């Protein structure tokens, strides 16, 4: 399926906010891909589709992943919103005909990130945070940092998530912690090697 067909379908499938957010993530991912030498068409495809699983909420999300054989962990069951990346990856394959593993991985991991993300996964993770509709404390620094030091930006994004979750008193998924630690470690090694 070509990306314009996908955009037209998503325009009907997603609510207006989510659709505009997805368009923005696509554009921001494109800019980051150009900046860091990643594949621009993969970045656009992963960007537009990253939240395509967002319509499945609560019990519906839990049921969906059960059906596709994904064993949700206890935090994901307590916070089914965390499952929309897994659902999105499945929809991307089954409904939108995506076969590229990098694109699928970027959709899969965009919510929490994970330890050892590849460049495309990092780009989508960051683009989701900094797209123009987002507004929260520190966003300007984050936007600037995204183009200066992607790794440091990931530390910043994951810390922002952790602070937000703590403030809400919600459960924190360990992948968010892994994301932060991994990028922090890369920065540390980078500095030691200079
Ligand atoms: Fe998302
Ligand atoms: Fe998103």
In short:
With 194 residues, the chain is an all-alpha fold. It has 11 helices and no strands. Helix 2 (16-36) crosses helix 8, helix 7 (101-109) packs across helix 8 and helix 8 runs antiparallel to helix 9 (139-148).
Walk me through what this model shows:
This protein is an all-alpha fold. It has a domain at 3-136: Orthogonal Bundle (Hypothetical protein af1432), CATH 1.10.3210.10. 71% of the residues lie in helices and 0% in strands. It has eleven helices and no strands. Helix 1 runs parallel beside helix 3. The longest helix has 21 residues, at 16-36. It starts with a helix and ends with a helix. The model has no long low-confidence stretch (mean pLDDT 97). The structure holds fe (ii) ion (2 copies). One fe (ii) ion (FE2) is lined by residues 50-51, 84, 110-111.
Layout of strands and helices, then pairs:
Elements: H1 3-13, H2 16-36, H3 40-49, H4 58-67, H5 74-78, H6 84-94, H7 101-109, H8 119-130, H9 139-148, H10 150-168, H11 174-193
Helix pairs in contact: 1-3, 2-3, 2-8, 3-7, 3-8, 6-7, 7-8, 8-9, 8-10, 9-10, 10-11
Residues 50-51, 84, 110-111 line the site of one fe (ii) ion.
Q: What characteristic shape results from the CA principal axes? A: globular
What value does the average pLDDT take? Answer: 97
**What gap, in angstroms, lies between the N and C termini?**
45 Å
> Into which percent range does the helicity of residues fall?
over 70%
The level 1 CATH classification of the domain at 3-136 is Mainly Alpha
What would you call the structural class? Answer: mainly alpha
What is the count of helical runs? Answer: 11
By CATH, the architecture of the domain at 3-136 is named Orthogonal Bundle
Oligomer: single chain
What series of H and E elements makes up the topology?
Answer: HHHHHHHHHHH
Strand count: 0
Rg from C-alpha positions?
16 Å
Largest sheet: none
The CATH topology label of the domain at 3-136 is Hypothetical protein af1432
